[in-house]
Amino acid sequence: MKESQTRSILAIVTIDEKSVVEGGVPTFLASDKKSQEKIASEIARVLGGNVYGLANGVIIITQE
Amino acid sequence: MQQQNQILETHVLLFILIGIVIGFISRWWMLRGDIRQYPTMPNGYLIHLITAFIAASMGAVAYPALLGKNYVAVTFLALAIQQFRDIRKMEKEALISLDKDSYAPRGPSYIDGIAKTFEARNYIVMIVSLITTLSAFILKSYIKKTIIVLSPAALIGFIAAYLLKQYTKGHTLKDIITVEEAPLAFKDGDNLFVGDIYVMNIGLSATRERILKNGIGLILKPANDNDNEKVILNHQGQRTAIVHECSRLLGLERYVATRRDFDTARVALVIVPIIKDVQRLKDIILNIPILETNKKVSSKNN
Questions:
Q1: B203·A53 Cβ contact <8 A
Q2: Is A17 a domain residue?
Q3: How many domains, in total, are found in chain A?
Q4: Is A41 in contact with B188 (Cβ distance < 8 A)?
Q5: What is the DSSP string of A29-59?
Q6: Cβ within 8 Å, pair A37-B236
Q7: In degrees, to the nearest 5, what angle opens at C-alpha B195 toward C-alphas B189 and B199?
Q8: Residue B99 contacts A where some CB pair is shorter than 8 Å
Q9: In this predicted model, what pLDDT tens digit does every residue of B86-95 receive, in sequence order?
Q10: Is A14 a member of any domain?
């Protein structure tokens, strides 16, 4: 039943400031695609979260 | 009368013994029929063989006890059933507590099925022993020689065991689905597809590469395209069982996930196993039992 539970976003990592509107979630700005993934992976590892990529290039980290 | 009951006659003793032995052997045979490595070796085996021995003894003694006008002995059967229900409870508790430890849990539906099977098999043993002893006594009234009576009685016992096993044998997924390997691909950036079914979103490129390199994608399709099969395959417990068996038998390097295609009722499975053997994975899936709770649903629909 894991799939049907709602989970919340823990953090957002983006390279484009414009694609994220301030929404109460910690948001990290990365310089390029590579560092974006690195930051996302670090955050996910620390928080034990899952990493998902959105179509607009933003990466979100959610609860497991 | 009292004197006669004190010492068992040789043939009665032999008949009871043959009942116990046949029941015991049939349980052993049923234990070996399981490829999914449950119960665990060697202690799980021992526990079930011992309880089978007790069940066999009860079944074998029931008829001679009646013959000896010892009606009280039959009430022990009631006690026995209580015992075997405890076995079911014990298995259930053990499996549920183990579930917390595993990455892909068995799920309550699967556990319930396993526990029920253990209980049922003890009853089978009891019935087999009863039938064996009973047929030995019946045959005895036609054939005078005790030794000759034993082998047909044993045969009848084995046939009963075989029939009961056939009756309680559940169906496996082999009967209702076909499994095909399908290519894994990432579309629209981060969305993982098995064939044409979306499964999940992977955000990191390192993970994406790992899945493409080591992952296996399968599509489970209802074989005859009828609604019952779709209902069974759609059941969450059934899918949990599939995921559990795959990851337990092949090991899990990273991910396992299933996803349904709502239009065609196909189910996509992605797994990154330690043992990368597609053929074996297919065999495992095809041999997964259809859960008993599921079967009730399907028979209602029929």
A1: yes
A2: yes
A3: 1
A4: no
A5: E-SSHHHHHHHHHHHHHHHT-EEEE-TTS-E
A6: no
A7: 60
A8: no
A9: 888 888 898 8
A10: yes
pTM of the model: 0.79
Residue A64 located in a structural domain? no
Helix (H, G, I), strand (E, B) or coil at B18: helix
A63: contact with B, CB 8 A cutoff: no
Q: What share of chain A is helix, strand, coil (3-state, %, to 5)?
A: 35, 25, 40
In this complex, do A55 and B188 lie within 8 Å of one another by their Cβ atoms?
yes
Residue A48 lies in a domain: yes
A5 interaction partners in chain B (CB closer than 8 Å): none
CA-based nearest residue to B51, from B82, B93, B13: B82
Amino acid letter for position B57: S
**What is the structure's pLDDT at B234?**
85
The predicted model gives B4-32 an average pLDDT of 81
Residue whose token pair is 């990592």: A13
Using CA atoms, how far apart are residues B281 and B273, in angstroms rounded to an integer? 9
Reduced 3-state DSSP string for B163-200: HHHHHHCCCEHHHCEEEEECCEEEECCCEEEECCEEEE
Q: Please give the residue range of the domain that contains residue A41.
A: 2-52
Confidence band for A11, pLDDT divided at 50, 70 and 90: very high
